[in-house]
């Protein structure tokens, strides 16, 4: 039985009237050409759980620890402007903002996370 990925798309990191590209410059540059990106903080246990979950499927996400980066506060501001509250963990799959821990866990429990990862070639089966 094939799992259907929802037709409604998550928020995409593209310039818009509300969020011009110059306000998202750092996030846009960091997610470019990456299948899975996780913005995290090294001291956040929820972030650790989300990273562990995604890695458990065989994905190798690009992880940015905001508390270890000099531009971490700028990235936090950009994530908040994109609608991430709280700003970590923030998961992008295929350069689309999927959301935080609640959204990732919901997708996982519905059996929709793995198909998304496969579609973006983050994992192979």
From TrEMBL:
Stretches that traverse the bilayer: none
Keyword Transport among record annotations: no
UniProt feature coiled coil, ranges: none
Recorded superkingdom: Eukaryota
Xref: InterPro entries: GlrX-like_pln_2 (IPR011905), Glutaredoxin (IPR002109), Thioredoxin-like_sf (IPR036249)
GO cellular component: cytoplasm
Compartment(s) where it occurs, according to its Swiss-Prot or TrEMBL record: Cytoplasm
PROSITE patterns: GLUTAREDOXIN_2
EC category: oxidoreductase
Single GO molecular function: thioredoxin-disulfide reductase (NADPH) activity
Domain Glutaredoxin: 36-98
EC number: 1.8.1.9
The entry's keywords: Cytoplasm, Oxidoreductase, Redox-active center
Keyword Chloroplast carried by entry: no
UniProt cross-references to NCBIfam families, sorted A to Z: GlrX-like_plant
Family: Belongs to the glutaredoxin family. CC-type subfamily.
Descriptive protein name: Thioredoxin-disulfide reductase
Organism of origin: Helianthus annuus
